[in-house]
Specification:
Elements (H helix, E strand, L loop, with lengths): L9 H12 L2 H4 L1 H9 L3 H25 L6 H9 L1 H30 L8 H18 L4 H27 L16 H4 L3 H14 L4 H7 L9 H26 L11 H8 L3 H35 L18 H20 L4 H27 L4 H20 L7 H34 L5
Helix pairs in contact: 1-8, 1-11, 1-12, 3-10, 4-10, 4-12, 4-16, 4-17, 5-6, 5-16, 6-7, 6-14, 6-15, 6-16, 6-18, 7-14, 7-15, 8-12, 8-14, 10-16, 10-17, 13-14, 14-15, 16-17, 16-18
Length: 447
């Protein structure tokens, strides 16, 4: 069933998509990618941008043909049946829950820049409580919040690029010895194939958010403009990512880019902009908190939607006409945040890497649902099929790369556990649905 005509223009959707995409996955996760991949991280950003554009093109084609409110979840159901809609919805819910946890951890790491003596789990507890308070108090104004958030993030990246360019060109009054890019292929590829392989997941993680554009695309005035919105958004994001990464690697030695803090903070401090470091850190905290709150609201709303469609217990559904979130749904969201706090207490050293790995992997599983659903929903050209296959290969490389290094394996096992649990529950639900169908058809309680 098609949704009613929306209110969003294509450029507004691009702005919202930019706000959903540029976040802690880039501001903090890119530091892990640099540590693992070195200068080849630039190649990885190109590959991830191509893979992301292929996934979004597939999603946009389905959205333009059938602008459904449930987006990729509805398309999976159309393609393979109720089990696919059920499992894809819960996989996406899980990815957003993990994303909330990674944002929560990133906020705490940013805050430790000012308060290094405060344990990570205490900071995560404070931000979790504040985030839940905002979600409980109100449900409106999220589009305006995302607009402000997108402008804030764009401004921060543009400011960094401007400062870095002024240093590189000698316009800042600071001394700089010139470009520090590797002079030989051996230096470029010093991390080797393994370094690129293990770093790919964190670069993909920086592009997470295109699926949110699919959910919001149902609100477009002209659904066929979804492709234009996505192309503009991905172009802006990719140019900003690549420009800032090149300048960062040219100006700052790799050994000064620490994994446990934003590489932009490390870079600005290395360049001597100590006052600007504090301002940029404040921007990261504000933007990260807004992203976390929006993610918390979205993940809770997804749970309510699943319940209303009969794909989750009815206790999670809301009453018609009541804009407040059901307490049961909020309680499950709070339980997920509590798990993030416990992880921060037990494994503070690599907590962000673990949660980011798991979150990025589960998100890529959602992208796989998009790619395999498309052939059964819309007619694809030969070029579309090649792009989809290429995207699946890149996603496969990113997923398998997490097994190649001990520090990223815990995230893989967490993501696998999520998939196994959802698969078992889906099998149970299929048996239940068959019994219900048999009862409706034959008036009996069992097959």
């Amino acid at each position: 069933m098609r949704t009613r005509q929306g209110h969003l223009t294509w450029w507004h959707l691009s702005l919202l998509g930019t706000g959903c995409t540029i976040g802690t996955g880039f501001f903090l996760g890119s530091g892990i990618a640099i540590q693992k991949s070195g200068f080849t991280v630039l190649i990885l950003f190109v590959l991830a941008a191509l893979g992301t554009s292929f996934v979004f093109a597939t999603l946009a084609k389905m959205t333009a043909a059938y602008p459904e409110q449930g987006s990729f979840r509805t398309y999976a159901k159309q393609a393979y049946g109720r089990w696919a809609g059920f499992s894809s919805g819960w996989i996406y819910w899980s990815s957003e829950m993990l994303l909330s946890g990674s944002s929560l951890t990133a906020l705490s790491l940013f805050s430790q820049f000012w308060f290094p003596q405060i344990p990570l789990w205490i900071l995560t507890s404070v931000y979790a409580a504040l985030g839940l308070t905002v979600v409980i108090r109100g449900a409106g104004g999220f589009e305006k919040t995302e607009d402000v958030l997108a402008i804030l993030k764009l401004s921060a990246l543009v400011l960094f690029i401007f400062v870095a360019l002024s240093v590189w060109l000698g316009r800042s009054g600071m001394s700089h010895s010139g470009p520090k890019l590797p002079a030989s292929l051996d230096e470029w590829f010093s991390p080797g194939f393994k370094g690129m392989w293990t770093g790919l997941i964190y670069v993909f993680y920086a592009f997470g958010g295109i699926e949110v554009m699919g959910l919001m695309a149902a609100g477009l005035r002209e659904p066929h403009h979804v492709m234009k919105s996505g192309r503009v958004m991905l172009l802006i994001v990719t140019v900003l990512y690549m420009t800032s990464m090149v300048l960062l690697l040219v100006l700052v030695p790799l050994e000064q880019l620490q994994q446990q803090e934003s590489p932009f903070i490390s870079g600005l401090r290395s360049l001597g902009f100590h006052v600007l470091v504090h301002g940029f850190n404040a921007v990261l905290i504000i933007a990260g908190f807004s992203t976390m709150v929006a993610s918390l609201y979205g993940v809770t709303l997804m749970l309510v939607t699943l319940a209303e469609d009969g794909d989750a217990p009815q206790c999670f559904s809301g009453r018609k006409g009541n804009r407040r979130m059901p307490y049961a749904a909020l309680g499950l969201t709070a339980a997920g945040l509590a798990a993030s706090v416990l992880l921060a207490l037990w494994t503070p050293k690599h907590i962000f890497e673990h949660i980011a790995t798991a979150s990025g992997l589960v998100l890529l599983y959602t992208w796989c649902f998009i790619l395999i659903s498309a052939p059964r929903v819309v007619k694809l050209t030969t070029g579309d099929k090649i792009k989809s296959f290429s995207a699946l290969l890149l996603i496969g490389a990113a997923v398998s790369g997490t097994l190649a290094e001990a520090s990223s394996r815990p995230g893989f096992w967490v993501s696998l556990l999520v998939v196994v649990i959802i698969a078992v529950v889906t099998l149970f639900m299929r048996l239940k649905w068959r019994k219900q169908e048999a009862k409706r058809k034959y008036g009996i309680g069992s097959v």
